[in-house]
Design goal:
- This protein is of the alpha+beta class.
- Helix content is 21%, strand content 31%.
- Strand 8 and strand 9 form a beta hairpin.
């Protein structure tokens, strides 16, 4: 039986023009595919679980490709890819799945986390991993406002308008948590979002809109109006990419060999 090889990888989005391969640009997928071509001595086309934008990070992105028969054992393949794909990318796991497995289409859930550092003191250790908002935020107002986004909705207001033309924009959000977190001694706010799938820049626009509420520029019930409008121009600004990390992709346990 032909198998599918499944890679889990982390990457620093700085310096990459996003995840998906693009001619003439340095991307995560492009660099991994070059490393695979060197290791396997043949071209390999991969599928990714999510297309992160330029500057967005990943703790556990997932990629899959059809086994060629030329692969070394899993640990050797991981060592080879890590030697060839650095800097900025680390392959953390190699698994095997049936031939019909797809990193994108077999996924049943995705988790992203967005980090904000609020207040007048700029971040040091978290710089490049967060959005520095120079004022305090009302987390209670943000949490109450975020409740409007839970469940299945048309999120057309929360995606790049051009990317939604002629496409289905209904998605399901299962969880939005907003809370404080300390990392490397620096205070931050983390917005954790879990859903079945996401539109282009959807989380960054949601975060930008929630920050408008947290700053007191918009009332808590405003996101109900934004959802109903199905119009990108009604929502808040797009939060910077460096605060966003693809945290986890969930698959049914029976996927794995």
């Amino acid at each position: 039986m032909t198998e599918t090889i499944v890679l889990t990888l982390s990457y620093d989005g700085v310096g990459f023009a996003g995840f998906a391969r693009q001619p003439g640009l340095e991307t995560v997928q492009g660099r991994i595919e070059r490393a695979l071509a060197t290791t396997l001595r043949q071209e390999v086309e991969t599928v990714g679980a999510g297309r992160t934008d330029a500057g967005v990070h990943a703790l556990a992105q997932v990629m899959s490709f059809s086994a060629t028969g030329a692969e070394p054992e899993d640990r050797a393949l991981m060592r080879s890819l890590n030697a060839l794909s650095r800097p900025g990318i680390v392959v953390t796991e190699v698994r095997r799945a049936p031939t019909e497995f797809s990193a994108r289409h077999s996924a049943i859930g995705r988790e992203y986390r967005y980090r904000i550092v609020p207040g007048p003191i700029p971040p040091l250790f978290l710089s490049g991993r967060c959005w520095w908002v120079k004022h305090s935020l009302d987390l209670g107002a943000m949490r109450r406002s975020a409740e409007s986004l839970l469940g299945e909705h048309d999120f057309r207001s929360f995606c790049v308008a051009e990317s939604a033309e002629g496409k289905r924009t209904i998605r399901r959000l299962d969880l939005i948590e907003i809370g404080p977190e300390s990392q490397l001694g620096e205070h931050s706010i983390v917005i954790r979002v879990v859903g079945n799938a996401f539109l282009h820049s959807m989380i960054r626009i949601m975060v930008g809109s929630l920050v408008e509420v947290g700053l007191g520029r918009r009332p808590e019930e405003w996101l109900d109006e934004v959802l109903a409008a199905c119009d990108r121009s009604v929502a808040g600004p797009t939060a910077p990419p460096e605060g966003l990390t693809l945290w986890h992709v969930e698959y049914p346990e029976e996927c794995w060999l």
